Amino acid sequence: MESEKLALLGGEKVIKTPFEKYNPIGKEEVDAVKEVIESGVLSQFIGGWGADFFGGPKVQEFERNCEKYFGVKHAVTVNSWTSGLVAAVGAIGIEPGDEVIVSPWTMCASATAILHWNAIPVFADIDPDTFNIDPKSVEARITPYTKAIMAVDIFGQSCDIDSLMKIAEKHHLKVITDTAQSPGAEINGKQTGTLAHVGGFSLNYHKHIHTGEGGILVTNDDEIFERLQLIRNHGEAVVGDKGVQNIVNIVGHNFRLGEMECAIGIEQLKKLDYLVKRRQEIAERLTNGLKDLNGIKTPYIASGNTHAYYVYPLVLDLQKLPVSRARIVEALNAEGLSFAEGYQNVHLLPMYQQKIAFGSKGFPWSSDIYHGNVDYSKGICPVAEELHDHSFVSYGLCTHELSDNDVDLMIEAFHKVWQNLNLIK
Fold it and tell me: Which end of the chain lies in a sparser environment, N or C, as judged by fewer CB atoms within 10 Å?
């Protein structure tokens, strides 16, 4: 029948109307911002010691609400999650020339936040099931220069934080969790991102909750908390009057989040449980519809984890399929989907391949502050590289507001393509 002909080959699309874009902003956020604007207090930060060093009323209300929601002692807001990562690396006392182990499957800021402090990113491989950093690979990368691990809770579920914390304790390391994509997910009943020395979440526009830009840092360590606040807001001008003795890495930054963004965040945080639950319902429906298709590995959820599904990840078993990944994705997207091939391997970016960051002479790798010999050549992360190059595909669940009918159309598109795979070799 003509209706069964692949769109790629001239047939009709399964999905004829684009899905509605994801937008969790409602009247509550509009009213909250209106209240802030009418107050005239759009920011209340002062880069000097005093009550306003900590920001205005909405900043502090949002931080206290985050502490309660995430079950942590301290929360610090920042103007982006990139700023949050920079602050976190600085707050744990990283020195120039130190090595920090990080995942290659992450947004590039995870690694550049390390370079910001003239330290050296060292990339460990990922687990083939969760796509999070592999603790065995982490331990194999430890050298005398290693001072920290940055674990990324990629796509929506926690890394193996218990194993990583044991490794850190054994080797006297600090652990940062980059949970940009996984707020609201849990591991063994606790909030993802809260079990390291410092962690946090992104509030970027396409995350589960957003304020346009922004981030939330969380920690149970009093000293790290103070240092995060200092790095956020020109701490070098504050330490004298505040009586701070440890001024390592307290260099001038303005990482401050405004009152309007925090007013939005207060309302968004109230919605997080529902928004995550809805993503889980969508993913479960999608998985049930795809699980019997030959050559597809649907998302794996590690024991004790829940998944927030920022991304819906799939792995294709190409030995069971008669056609390439590229051709499959082309056929799916012709039916109205928007699947992507692979995921960025940060260690293969030009910055790391050429070891060029600050200036033209290879600083900090080539300088006398670094005594290690880090390797960024292709092949150091074989699992991450194979998945990226050949078998991984994904759909951004936080890009669209999907109804059950939309999900059923997605499933229909998959089945249609799978029934016609032999026609698109």
Answer: N
